[in-house]
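Task 17 of the worksheet. Students: predict the tertiary structure of the chain below and write it out as structure tokens. Keep your answer in the requested format; marks are given for formatting as well as content.
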Amino acid sequence: MGRYLARRLGQSLFILIGITLVTYVLLYLLPADPVRQFTRGNASPEIVEAIRRQFGLDLPLWQQYLRYLGNLLQGDLGRSYIQKTEVATLILARLPATLQLMAAAIVVELAIGLTAGILAAAHRGRPLDRALMVASFTAVSAPQFVVGILLLYLFAVRLAWLPLGGYGTLAHLVLPALTLGLLGGGWYARMTRSAMIDVLRQDYIVTARAKGAGPGRVLLVHALRNAALPIIAMVGLDIGVFMSGAVVVESVFGWPGIGQLTWQAIQTVDIPIIVGVTTVAAGFIVLGNLLADLIAPFVDPRIKRR
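Model answer:
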């Protein structure tokens, strides 16, 4: 296990370096000039050049990247061009809100997806199965901002059950978590159904039924445990996706997380924040996948034996 963990950590380090390199190069190729954005086009050429030297933007790309990478290895994500604050400080200030939303969204999507997938697999080919799969396809295809606005209109405007936006209480968390959970739940429903159908064909399921196991025990104990591996891997990916991918949802609901910070940075071409958030999100994806790999042997003993 120690050698495996060391190998995975080494692979993760190379992945993170590659992600920072690709992100840095793509942002460098943008036609927008962050210095012009910073000065709003009102500064003289001398001032613009002084700002470029201050932030190291007059250096060649490879020198800028190596400089950034060296600082990154020391835990320094750079300094925001616009907010004039350390990027690590900005991200840490927004991190608790995003982690809270991420955890709630994963709980919602698992509750919806696993329930729908198990029911669809248990009623394969019947009207309930078809209805659940149509609903899951609709959820997967729906744009996040459309779902968010519809939920706001229904539960905040028409019924006045929940606040329009904001942060701080459980009521503020419900709608953004439900928006993300509905969309993710569609993926989990389809994946769970497919995995459960494959498992329900196995010989040990027939044996369990022959021994008198009830339908609920067969589905939840014997079948779901062996169908859970792709679901665990998908949760690992969601940990990173929700870190940076909830930009639209956080903007719609005024949720003060990393997604909202990213959107503000994109609007002002604040490259250090964009690269910093991308790096942190990639780190969470790698961490999520690593945790999924470590948990998998406890779910399926066959992996531990291999």
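Marker's comment: The longest helix spans residues 87-122. The chain has a mean pLDDT of 79.
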